[in-house]
Design a protein that fits this description.
The protein has 16 helices and twelve strands. The chain is an alpha/beta fold. β9 and β10 form a beta hairpin.
Amino acid sequence: MIRDNQKVLNWIHVILDGIVVAISYLFAWFIKFKVIGVDADAGELVGILPRETYFSVLYYMVPLYLMLYYFCDLYMSKRYSSSRREIFNIVKANTLGIGLFMASLYFVHIGDISRTMIAIFYISTNVLEIFFRQMVRKVLRDIRKKGYNVKYILLIGYSRACEKYIDRLTENPQWGYVVCGILDDRIPAGTVYRGVKVLGRIDNIHVILPENKLDEIGISLALEDYDRLEELVNICEKSGVHTKFIPDYNSVIPSQAYIEDLTGLAVINIRHVPLTNTVNIIIKRLMDIVGSIVCIILFSPIMLVSALMIKFTDGGKVIFKQERVGLHNHPFWMYKFRSMREQSEEDEKKGWTRKGDPRVTTIGAFLRKTSLDELPQLFNVLKGDMSLVGPRPERPQFVEQFKETIPRYMIKHQVRPGITGWAQVNGYRGDTSIRRRIECDLYYIENWTLTMDIKILIMTVFKGFVNKNAY
């Protein structure tokens, strides 16, 4: 079974990491002293350390980096860990390593080690470690897709969470998980969900556990069975099999729950929104101000041409403004290039634009298809009504409708609405599923980072402008 080999695999990984660190260090020394060389005119020959001194540092560097890799969670399972998170942890560990190394040089009064070599070492360690770990990740995932290096898991309790868990594992064979079956008191034995069978009642766990053929147990009880949770956890942990809890309230608790520790009492916050942090708010607002000014200057010729085309082909107003709901449910006027024939306010409220809508002008159809009608919203961003990236704002009448029919819809108003967002770059624009759009918006709200905003903007440039669902 997998768990019998896991320790060996971990030790192999540690040894390979040590080799990568040593190779990076030796490579940096070689580049500095054999390729670049020493500049005698600059005085580098004075106090230069011998080769043996440089090489002896490895006895200190390798263990230091391995410990940092451990504390930065680089030896955790890669089955369904994020590649981006692993890269971040590598850079974090290597940055801490360089910082501790430089500090130690100060305390032992060694000032003659080449700073150029240290810089090369830092860069090469990051590059080689990221490359090596991505290769390991790819090899392991390819092996798991073929049915090797898999973990066998038994689920206790048939629930919505149980089905979602099976869905995720089935859709991601590279994670290497095989669900052996489900135990449940309410669902009859023999019931099958996506190839996974209900084996019998929960009490059968007393027969299955002694066989010792499981790698993990997942407790996925339905909410009405939670009175047995503590009992089952105790039974599973006595067996020594790794046990995980798959809660049946994921529709309420976010994917990355924010937990407060009140002197040993865990308190789970229902919603953690990074953009309620003052520093994050300031960073995002500065990015919006700078980004909107740059984009206004950059796209000003396109906006001018669009305005002239609207004026000369259809006459009437160039800019169309419409009330939308923004941050903290406050209404604001959102600007767009007018793409429809001028109409009364009552007609505007009738509904979304549909395919072949006669209200859309010829030039308007082009502007909507290419999203160029959205460009005036850069001024909304500059004003502070909107952000470059965020959930798309909706009209008040639809907000009133959706907040009653779509769970957690109003959470999107905890952040500024955006010109583009995670839903839009994933194809949920125009006449698409509101529920799927909200799921994407909630993911963005709960997992916001500045890097994520930059990623969405880049994705918008490459695939977000042309909207096949815009009519």
